[in-house]
Amino acid sequence: MSPRNSEEGDPAMSRASVLVVTGLVLVAGSAAGLSMVVASPSATARQAAPEAQELVNPIPATAESVAVGKRYYRSFCDDCHGPTGRGDGGMAMAGDTPSDFTDDVWDHGSTDGEIFVVIRDGTSSPDMEGYARKLDEDRIWHVVNFLKSLSKR
């Protein structure tokens, strides 16, 4: 996807264009050329919040669901987030610190829907990819139930 140009064919562009791609804000303008600003994770979470807050977890948080979610967590998440969810798994390669699910801070939103969207779509960090191709929606909801069970909140 390329930014729109108000004067077709004019590479200088008379007005600045903004393109938001997975948490990055790219700004192109005639005076500045091209500059890049990385959006904060909280800004990215706020952008996703309207859709995410509308989502309702269709899977009750039963002991069985938490156990299923734990199985998928162990397969896909604990290398980075650690076996107990403290963010100490050690496999985050881009230098970010993985979220600690046992503390009282949810970096990308605390509702079931917000957590679901982060697992499904990933975050602006290269370390947190989306898992929509690896886990179907029901499995992601089970992981959400497991993660919520780790919280001390």
Features:
single chain; 153 residues; alpha+beta; Cytochrome Bc1 Complex, Chain D, domain 2; 2 domains; three-stranded antiparallel β-sheet; 5 helices; 3 strands; globular; disordered N terminus
Question: Any overview of this molecule?
Answer:
The chain has 153 residues and is α+β, with helices and mostly antiparallel strands. It folds into two domains: 1-39, no CATH class; 41-150, Orthogonal Bundle (Cytochrome Bc1 Complex, Chain D, domain 2). The protein is 37% helix and 11% strand. The protein has helices at 41-54, 63-76, 78-81, 112-121, 137-150; strands at 17-21, 24-29, 33-38. Strand 1 (17-21) and strand 2 (24-29) form a beta hairpin. 24% of the residues are buried. Residues 1-47 have low confidence and may be disordered.
In short:
With 153 residues, the chain is α+β, with helices and mostly antiparallel strands.
The separation of the N and C termini measures 41 Å
Return Rg in Å: 19 Å
Binned strand content: 5-15%
**Overall spatial form:** globular
Instruction: Classify the helix fraction into a percent range.
Output: 25-40%
Overall pLDDT metric: 76
CATH topology value of the largest domain? Cytochrome Bc1 Complex, Chain D, domain 2
Major sheet description: 3 strands, antiparallel
SS summary, helix count: 5
Q: Quickly give the structural class.
A: alpha+beta
- CATH H level, superfamily name of the largest domain: Cytochrome c-like domain
Pick out the low-confidence regions.
Answer: 1-47
